[in-house]
TrEMBL record, chains A, B:
Pfam families: ArgJ. It is an enzyme of class 2 (transferase). Transmembrane segments: none annotated. One of its GO terms (biological process) is L-arginine biosynthetic process. The record marks T124, G125 as: Involved in the stabilization of negative charge on the oxyanion by the formation of the oxyanion hole. The active site is at T198 (nucleophile). This is Arginine biosynthesis bifunctional protein ArgJ. It comes from Pseudooceanicola nanhaiensis.
Amino acid sequence: MGKYPVSPLAPAAFPELPVIRGASFATVAAGVRYAGRTDVMLALLAPGTQMAGVFTRSSTRSAPVLDCQAKIGGDSEAGAAIVVNSGNANAFTGKNGVTATEAVTRGAAEALGLPVERIFTSSTGVIGEKLPAERITAKLDELKAALDEAAIAVAAKAIMTTDTYPKGAAAEVSINGETVKIAGIAKGSGMIEPDMGTMLVYIFTDARIARPALQDMVSAISDKTFNCITVDSDTSTSDTLLMAATGASGVSVEAGNAAFEEALHGVMLDLAQQVVKDGEGATKFVEVTVTGARSDEEARIHAKSIANSPLVKTAIAGEDPNWGRIVMAIGKSGAEADRDLITIRFGDVLVAEKGWVAESYREEDGAAHMKGQNLSISVDLGLAEGAATVWTCDLTHGYIDINADYRS
Amino acid sequence: MGKYPVSPLAPAAFPELPVIRGASFATVAAGVRYAGRTDVMLALLAPGTQMAGVFTRSSTRSAPVLDCQAKIGGDSEAGAAIVVNSGNANAFTGKNGVTATEAVTRGAAEALGLPVERIFTSSTGVIGEKLPAERITAKLDELKAALDEAAIAVAAKAIMTTDTYPKGAAAEVSINGETVKIAGIAKGSGMIEPDMGTMLVYIFTDARIARPALQDMVSAISDKTFNCITVDSDTSTSDTLLMAATGASGVSVEAGNAAFEEALHGVMLDLAQQVVKDGEGATKFVEVTVTGARSDEEARIHAKSIANSPLVKTAIAGEDPNWGRIVMAIGKSGAEADRDLITIRFGDVLVAEKGWVAESYREEDGAAHMKGQNLSISVDLGLAEGAATVWTCDLTHGYIDINADYRS
């Protein structure tokens, strides 16, 4: 943290996050790996809080991820707590990983008077080093004493590894004339020191939502937000999203409530895009939209193929409206396409249609769009109605600088 | 060509390629795009020559690729010819692409007295620009007059786009006391000017082989050679491999002849590895072997996931023995793995076993291996007997320099 400058794509300021009744936060400098900064956060959640989660699909996922997944459907009566440390991912640490996770969850359960099944932990940082769990457990009483409903912004800082800025987003929703609030924080995808690639997301609401409805909402919206971003096609062993609904507002939200879903979608999309905007070495934020595919899933395959192509991403870094590479990325994706039906646009500029460059296209128009900081690439395949949008950044010398550094 | 220095991984010299009876070559400077160099090659193949081919699976493949694919099974009586131009890929050029391919094949058929069905063409270079076919057809008589059995080495140069060195390989095989010869040339994967990413491979033998046997051999060996290399995970619209068996030695090779297959495998692997060694910005050549997978196909998925990971490739560029990123790449591949059974080696150095760093591992041993120019990464998954090897290069600032340049 601090080794690299703040991303040029960072928001102007950290947003004002509302107090979520039933959720309080504390942070501490436990010295897990970093010196001179907070590196452990505790979130305490009121009795009755419903938890939902989405986790990495990696087959080499970390001990804390496996522990969270096992607990996510549990009884909510007692409340819950989330303990997160930065600096050490506790991933690929063999049996030590399980031992360390157990030590933290058992310690937190005792300190907070909660069942161990209601303690959710995440670890982010270096892979393959033993987590010094005792440094975390030694600070649990201090954390408990410091709990504060207004401390979510400092929590966003404690979970950073090599992020260049903390990430937060919030929304308010009116339900039958009453207001519920949503606030979320996220970290990633720095990768600024080797082995640090985890994305962690924590979202809180004071709405009262049944667990199945909450999980359905979180899973569905994740697919359209966090599962639609890519920095470099690499997937962490520790990615975790947890959402807590405390119910403290007394306002019930039923499954399928459009206003709440829209607000939650907004918060999750904002956080997801903030993660991309902190991508290693990023100088451009790029929205890739594919329409006219055989299905939404095929549209996403094409969009991801474009967004992950090193040749597309380096062309964007070079401000080159290189539509030939878009054609290449569509061709290699494995999903269906007909070369002679493809239409490509950069922003509003029609670049190619019917399998060749558009008659109206002038290279300087494409080049002008590429000079912006927020770019859009749209492809219509002309086959059917499938559509998808993904978000990515460019591939620059900064990425190589950051990731070819020897760990030290 | 010439804009970037010769790859540090290039062979010391272009190999001595034998004359293949029944095959003759000519090159010319036609000015398709480049000035001051040869850019069209003609190979004329004797009557009875059997042709086999392997082509890009891209759904946006170019007009010459589609034309070659349609012709590959045709009657061999009349002989055949291969016409290749560099500088323009004739890809994503709409109807113009078909028109230009027809002009070249018809012109060559007339000049050489061959049926148009026996003229195979490839084009490599910029995507999306109209191919000036007339510049090629104007030179066909000159090419015919220059045909020379010994000119295969100059042919290797004419097909280069932004390769930093020409690529050739050869073998001799003894079949029942008689000798047959194999010689091949390849180009790729420069990408040194945007839109130039085609891999072209032409292999010639004077053995007599029936077309189905030849095609089976070429397809099977391609899967273990050219389909096991990756520079940047991007797939060209024009990749083409053609093999011609002239039969001029009078020596018959039957399907399944182990000596011939081994020799052909050697030539194809050599050419494939030369393509990787000319990867954009490459400074390290890396062999990735995965064993113990559920199947050979699952082993290849894991190996490709490692070889294509930007984080693994930048770590290699930084000479960082970053085994955590190997674990990450295995985890994200989608193929089966059990975190706690994985063994990882860099060269002979045991790095990780049973889900954690090996007790015997010393970081300086891993670091010492990474300082070499030819690296090996081996992963055993401990699940079953599936195995695969792929070859790749590192991801360096050179790649960004080359590909973030604006086309000009």
